[in-house]
Amino acid sequence: MIRIGANPICWSNDDMIEIGGDIPLEQCLAEAAEIGIEGMELGNKFPKTAPALKAKLAEFGLVFVSGWYSTFLLERDADAEFAAAAEAIALRKGAGAEVLIVCECTRTVHGVKSAPLSARPVLTDAEWAVFLPRMTRFAELVAGAGLTLVYHHHMGTVVQTEAEIDRFMAGTGAAVKLLLDTGHATWGGADPVRLARLYRDRIGHIHTKDVRQDVRARSEAGGWSFLDSVLEGVYTVPGDGTVDYVAVFRELPDYAGWVIIEAEQDPDKAHPKTYVKMGYDNLVRFLDEAGLKRAA
Known about the structure:
By secondary structure, the protein is an alpha/beta fold. It has a single domain (about 1-290), classed as Alpha-Beta Barrel (TIM Barrel), CATH 3.20.20.150. The chain has helices at about 25-35, 50-60, 80-85, 85-95, 125-145, 160-170, 180-185, 190-200, 215-220, 225-230, 245-250, 270-290, and strands at about 1-5, 40, 65, 70, 100-105, 150, 175-180, 205-210, 210, 235, 255-260. Strands 3-2-1-11-8-7-6-5-4 form a 9-stranded parallel beta sheet. A two-stranded antiparallel sheet has the order 9-10. Helix 1 (about 25-35) packs parallel to helix 12 and helix 3 (about 80-85) crosses helix 5. The radius of gyration is 18 Å and the shape is globular.
């Protein structure tokens, strides 16, 4: 069964904490619950211990889904990464998560407002040869700790383009699952329908955000940074851009897990509750049209 969740980045940004910084956590959780959201991913305003995190979400009838963890496997081996991740793994597992969301952040530019996306890191063959087996080993260690590693391809990082996603998937083992992000895929030049079809057996988590192609075009023409592009509205909620979600979901007839609304926007320009409600209603319709069953 599929459950619809949300990421608090729809209300408050983690890379630029001043964006939506004035929106209380309680407002975010209350609005999410009212919309029909069942679970939330982690944000900077959330409690820092598993019992407190579970309790806060339970106040609003929500459960914990998971949260982002930055890996640096180009700089340290899998065992060192696993040791560094111990606290993050314990928090997620203790709060009820089943997956660990990871993204390789060595030399990333996605959190640097002054850095154009063209400055992102591109791996050499030698770096790929180091990175891929380390990611597999790290995923196996995470599995031993009781969580499934789901890899988040992301703009501004070493796995951004369709070719890079393909190389990543071909070079990692079965313990590594894919977090399919429709917005990052589309902006990065990949077809999310193709990714869903090719990797359906290894997709362990889904992030849904849509892309405003006019803003994307201006970003690429102007050499904007990731954060400037976000603030200008490159992303929006599912159904408000160009992604064909019904086609994506039809490629995933056996998917069982979370579908997360993760559409970072400037809340002063895109009222969070209005947009998340729009995204939720669209997702329900898209999932129903694709024939996928949601949890009762």
